[in-house]
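quick one before i forget lol
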Amino acid sequence: MSNTANIDEVLKTHWGYDAFRPFQKEIIQSVVGGKDTLALMPTGGGKSICFQVPVLAQEGIGVVISPLIALMKDQVENLNKRGIKAVAIYAGMTYREIDVALDNCVYGDVKFLYVSPERTTTTLFRERFKKMNISLLAIDEAHCISQWGHDFRPAYLNIIELRELHDTQFPFLAVTATANDRVVNDMLDQLEIPKATVFKQSFVRDNLGYLLLKEENKEERLLTILNKSRGSAIVYVGTRKKTVDVSNFLNSKGISSDYYHGGLNQQDRTAKQDKWISNKTRVIVATNAFGMGIDKPDVRVVVHLDVPSSPEAYFQEAGRAGRDGERAYATLLYKDSNRIDLEKLHELEFPDKKIIKQVYNALGNFYQLAIGAGEGESYLFKIGEFGNRFNLKPVTIYNAIKILALDGYVELSDAIYHPTTLKILVSTKDLYEFQVRNKGFDILIRFVLRKYPGIFDSFKKIDLFDIAKEAKLSVAKVNDAFLKLKQLELIDYVESHDSPILTYTRARLNEKSLSISKQSYLDRKKIKKGQLDFMIRYCESEFICRNRLLLLYFDETSFKDCGICDVCIERKKKGLDNYDFEAISQHAKELLSIKPNPIQELVKKMPFPEEKSIKVLQFMLDNRMLKVNKQHQLELKK
């Protein structure tokens, strides 16, 4: 059977699709052919298919490196539902849970191993990785390897070492939704795959109209937008509290709404997602924790009440509208005071280095870690309790930890729900003998064996409420019984939790030895400032097509104005169509390439109506295509 026939068959068998989306087949064929591959595909382009299909079409296991724990868990769950064995390793799992999962990747029938980049640096992982039969190493959210990307993760820089550890050759597949040329080149350099086949799907979304509306009363304008639109909607806001407030406001006005943020437990998250996906809830009001891995095609409008911190984040979040190809809108509501708010947030994002060291020392004291101890250890992180004890604000703590993570001292996971899990440690014979001697545990053990097959081989997610009902006991008593069995070393039992996890990636240092690098602090601050400046420019520009402005950021130039954003609509009202604009701006560039000109002289030299010429030149100034020199003349900006 040819590779092409095989991958078509895999797609049909496991996903039920008759055909691939654009670029998917070409990417998969490249990988199956053993070639290093980089794929840039916008949000909703079907990136996961590109690494799941080639692994299923070949012998061996696929290792997927991802920074998003929630997305890893969702993909593992979806694969398992399809009868494909997959496991994930991330911060917060016990040593034994990780040990068993890795054993099953080496000796069992696991087909996919999802792992956070920080876990790949541990000795435990690397020793087992050497023994795995790897068919593909996929790097999801690959822009995280570049310091120029919007979400740099230093642990990604260690990925190249995995290839050096292994005796056999396997291809890399790096995938991301958002990257400009600078980030693409950096990804290729950092992964040491200069000859990789690069697939870049255009970021153009013909059906998506970008609107920027200046509005002081954002909630009332939101209400107007939702009343005038149809279908499902996402509303993005900047804080958890605001998700609740805005959702309550919409419900009070008769619009079915719910809220979503990273502080919710997994059960609530799933219930809220399911209601929205099944159209029982029309609007979901969320922080940026919402959307990864959710592919709802019929979202008609995405509204941002707060300005995202980077164009990459905005492009991804806005791009969740109109995936069915039908007309949809992404609306960003902006007011003049937002600029000041954004600049303040940027300063807060980079606390003084003394504050960063204070937070680091406080963490060590909080967990009672001695100097030189703690490497590889993970702890539940309750930011409220920590902040109260050391009189530190949550925003200061969070931003200080982000910088400490960039220098490889600690790692803080998202707030995640870790379910109750259990694995039997003894043989069937030993367990039976224990049941005979301890009748009080017999009904619990028999139910677990019947309900959770494979529990001798790997950790299984168990339902305490289900077990308690069967045993006619309280949940507390069932939990106590399992803790007793754990104490007797008959089982390994991990209770559920839904807090973020803080992991020491290096042993605790004393204050004098702690160093914050220029790359993690000053360079990163400069990069983030550039992203912020672009977002302010996007919000305050009144002349350039929104779609054009976004695509220029991603180094796409071969396109025309969209015709459906607020700028294009307003330009049509003023009588400046795309043809006029292109002709006037091109003629101005040609004249100014010869020599600078005062604006009135330039207008006289141009064979167009004066009013139109002035409007276009003003647009070019506002959008930094031109500048005014010391002699008060227009010249091209270099």
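fyi Residues 13 and 522 are 51 Å apart (CA to CA).
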